[in-house]
Amino acid sequence: MQQIALNLIAIGVFGMTLSVLLGPLLNISPAIPAVTTFGVLSLVTLDGFSFQGKGLTLLLDVLASTNPEHRGRIIRHEAGHFLVAYLLGIPITGYTLSAWEALKQGQLGNGGVTFDTEALSAQASNLREMRLTLDRFCTVWMAGIAAETIVYESAEGGAEDCDKLRDALEGLGFSASEYSVKARWAERQATSMISEHWESYEALVAAMEKRASVAECCEVIQ
Predict the structure, then answer these.
(1) Residue 116: pLDDT band with limits 50, 70, 90
(2) Rounded to an integer, what distance in angstroms lies between the CA atom of residue 201 and that of residue 19?
């Protein structure tokens, strides 16, 4: 079950428990928290079985998008991925900045930058090239966190990026401690690249805010 669904269930149960405890003091009917909790659980169940969790993702994304800082964080996070991928020569095929934009393009999740990984796989003809390709992708995956941290001194997004990095390294036989070292190295690399190309990064953020095309975004970086 998605973490979002689990969080909503936990919130629903907590709310019902709190309402039962405080209900007599606030003259709240026991039926109200019960019906509310039942509604939340029904919504989570229906969404999980019928829409694979997309409904809850869209709902929470819409609610979060009303926060200007949240919208800014998403754009700057994805601009970090985009810029570092471009600088490392990873072909970019598109980007989305919300769950709704991603759904319209047939993608799951909250959106993000997409790449042409097949073109890169064809280039990795030997062990050295494979290691270089892995290093490039590790740096790109951590670039969103790096960009957020530079601007806001902390990162709220990036859980899915860390999962991608962890899955890739575990699949290649890396241990948990090696993953931590690699993640820190990749974030430092991304931080250095974004800082070094700060004017290009700011121009890219402005372009992505206007939903410029991939080609237009690449032009402003140049």
Answers:
(1) confident
(2) 48
Q: Is 114 helix (H, G, I), strand (E, B) or coil?
A: strand
Q: Are 56 and 4 in contact (CB under 8 A)?
A: yes
Q: Please write down the HEC assignment for all residues of 134-193.
A: HHHHHHHHHHHHHHHHHHHCCCCCCHHHHHHHHHHHHHCCCCHHHHHHHHHHHHHHHHHH
pLDDT band at 118 (very low <50, low <70, confident <90, very high): confident
The mean-pLDDT minimum among 21-25, 143-147, 152-156 falls in 21-25
Tell me how far CA of residue 12 lies from CA of 19, 40, 53, 101, 215, in angstroms.
10, 7, 17, 28, 45
Nearest to 1 by CA among 47, 40, 37: 47
- Alpha-carbon distance of 176 to 21, in angstroms, equals 43
Task: Quote the pTM value.
Answer: 0.71
85 burial via Cβ count (<10 Å: 0-12, 13-18, 19+): buried
| CA separation for the pair 222, 152 (Å, rounded) | 25
- Assign 81 a pLDDT band (cuts: 50, 70, 90): very high
Please state, in angstroms and rounded to a whole number, the distance separating the CA atoms of residues 33 and 19.
6
